[in-house]
Amino acid sequence: MNHDCPIREGARQTPDAEALRFLEQTWTFRMLDAEVARWTEALVARGVGQGDRVALLSTSHPSVTFLFWALGRVGAVFAPLNARLTSAELRPLVDAVEPKLTLALGSLRERLTGAEALEAFTQGMVATSVPERAWDAETPRVILFTSGTTGRPKGAVLTEGAFRASCQGSAANLGRHAAPRWLGTLPLFHVGGLAMLTRTAYEGGCLLLHERFDAEAVNRAIDVDGATHASFVATTLERVLDARHDRTLPVTFECALIGGGPVPTALLTRARAAGLRALQTYGLTEACSQATTERPQEADGRTAGPPLPGLEVRVVGADGAPLGAGHEGDVEVRGPTVMVGYWNQPDATREAFHDGWLRTRDVGVLDARGRLTLLSRRTDLIVRGGENLYPAEIEAVLANHPAIAESAVVGVPDSHWGEVPVAFVVLRSGHSLPEDLDAWCRQSLARFKVPTRFVEIETLPRNAMSKVERSVLRRDAMSHPMYQSGS
After folding, report:
1. Which end of the chain offers a freer environment for a tag, N or C, measured as fewer CB atoms within 10 Å?
2. CA–CA gap between residue 12 and residue 30 (Å, rounded)
3. Do 82 and 215 touch, CB atoms closer than 8 A?
4. Which among 60, 67, 17 has a CA at the least distance from the CA of 37?
5. How far apart are CA 408 and CA 465, in angstroms?
6. What is the rounded distance in angstroms from the CA atom of residue 228 to the CA atom of residue 417?
């Protein structure tokens, strides 16, 4: 199936509708279309065409959106690089995609040898009529590198069709909105950020782009700029509520998608009291963001919801056979949002698929209503005396303790049990390490699941994609003095 550029469509159908906002600047669809045309002309002048890769190092900036849509018009592939990476980490990624062109935001150019300044790329360029090209749904659109928590980063190749299917599935789940105004606080080198950029364009909405997350700015966007949708994790949701002092949200705000792990029950209750409908999700880069999401009318905060319409999610055993409801196993995803493979890594691509299903390497369980509960990444699984322990289950219990802001549980070697769980906890302001954590856990967890130690830590170590670096915590746990609850 072929498509037209959604920005061009918007310029024809709703030319004066707001399409992009950044700081005090706004672009209507007509203005955005003209800007994208200039960037398209600049790419053509540089010889960038069908199948070429363009690497970019940038934080979220309007120029990133202009470049993204212009690349689609010439059939080139967008390869955004994580702006938090060092020069040493970036170089092998650039080498892997072999870009025709490399651009970087001025403040980041020193990290990327040979990169041209993003802000100056179209200087002196006047838009002319570049021949229109139909957008094939199967054409590679983006190469997004995974975070590399389990090894060398791999470039997931996502198509135009994958982004459109993701938008359609999410809209079908949330209910269609005439012109959604998505709050764009996730970086545009992240699949979540690109999901918001694309779905606002496909649905004729507006992207309220922020360079980084700021709770005060988020609340201004909700109260003043008419934001209707947003994506948060538990910690950013809490910061938004804290900053607004639990003031009720305007009725124009529809919902927030919550990813990144379990959300404390008290936080969900607090959000509901403020009129903020929070829907838990499960997603991954290789599936173009969301794979499952709670349905608005059924959300209870207990699961990550059922598959998005158009997608299938199943749980399989060690032999690859599907398991029934209530049985723990490996999560697999199938549908039009799934990547076509890893860039120039055929072996990794073959390993990632099983009979057409994407192997996520995550562990979960489906309930009788088809709703997914994510238990762990396979590499995070703790095996204690033959029993499987899932960090997410323990972290969900700790998340509900009033003194704990966030936690991470890792397994460390033990001569008797093989492995035992150790919990690292970040405390809320004004709290000291509670003496009742052991007892708190025992109220909800079997004895063998209760951490053997609780270690206070100022902040959890995270990689460039903000995922907890459990390998660092494991090393710390093995060298940390023993701590017994209440000592």
Report:
1. C
2. 8
3. no
4. 67
5. 16
6. 50
Tens-place pLDDT, residues 192-209: 999 999 999 999 999 999
Q: What is the pLDDT of residue 152?
A: 65
- Alpha-carbon gap, residue 4 to 61, rounded angstroms: 24
Domain boundaries, the chain: 2-372, 381-479
Question: How is domain 2-372 classified at the CATH fold level?
Answer: Rossmann fold (3.40.50)
User: Are residues 170 and 293 in contact, defined by beta-carbon separation less than 8 angstroms?
Assistant: yes
What does the alpha-carbon distance between residue 244 and residue 227 come to, in Å, rounded to a whole number?
A: 15
CA distance 220 to 60: 18
Structure tokens at 346: 């055929």
Is the pLDDT confidence value at 106 over 80? yes
Q: Shortest CA distance to 213 belongs to which of 194, 189, 191, 231?
A: 231
Query: What pLDDT was estimated at residue 89?
Result: 81
Length of the chain: 487
Name the architecture of domain 381-479. Answer: 2-Layer Sandwich (3.30)
Residue closest to 208 by CA, chosen among 195, 226, 187, 188 = 226
**Residues 229, 255: contact at Cβ < 8 Å?**
yes
Q: CB–CB of 134/92 below 8 Å?
A: no
CA distance 274 to 294: 19
Amino acid found at 347: D
User: 33 near 10, Cβ under 8 Å?
Assistant: yes
Question: Which pair of tokens denotes residue 275?
Answer: 């009129």
CA angle 207, 23, 160 (to 5 degrees): 25
392 to 260, 327, 345: CA distances (angstroms): 10, 16, 30
Can you give the pTM of this predicted structure? 0.84
39 near 24, Cβ under 8 Å?
no
